[in-house]
Amino acid sequence: MSFIVNPYVYAVAGCADADANAFLSATGITDPTISGAICTLVTSMKANGTWAKCNAIYPMVGGTATTHMYNLKNPSNTNAAFRLGFVGGWTHSANGALPNGTNAYADTFLNPTTTLSINSSHISYYVRTNIAENRYDMGAGADPSAYIIIQSRSTLGNARFIVYTGDLNDVANSDSRGLFISNRTSSTVINGFKNTSKILNLTQTAIARPNRSIFLGALNFQGTNGPVLFSSKQCAFSTIGSGLTDAEATNLYNTIQTFQTTLGRQV
Question: Is 145 within the bounds of a domain?
């Protein structure tokens, strides 16, 4: 006797979105609160235009390294699907993924030179830890001018946003919690967002993309051929994709914050 396996066995009751159901099926998540939050997240992102702007979306749900690794946009367990490869000391919980600040990072396997446009790119990182440290929450870099970076709060009290230059674009920030977005919208415009506020806006020419994959929890640096400046800030969401308009950046934050509030882990 043969049986047909239903690919949507983990489908949410009332959720007709195939992408949400594919993610839930891949992760094996059946918790109704998480399932409902994923369904609302996907349908909201599609409605406000931010879904199409992302190549990778990491919702960090389910509380394990296995569930945290999946890319919501393409939930296959392959490098080509940009699933996360966790290395070093991570603590996985219902609140997200917490790196140890010593040797922990996650490889996204997404290389900007092959996936992202030099004139239109963004990365985002939702931080749940308020700490000042001279480390990077997310990024990749190659000297002298090929960096894409988020630093939410340094010991000098600054956030840093860099997209395809070598300039140290710092702006005062006293709390590292929230959603941080490094964003380039053209060959000459770069900005940085914290939640719904555009706290950095510069005319700055794009020079080069780093020819290496973006890491979460550290900087993937050409000079050391691997991770440096390991973060100790908990990640509860991250995205990588095309440049966002001001309205799209606001929409992305509002949608993610609704998601986090449903899960009871908002900051």
Answer: yes
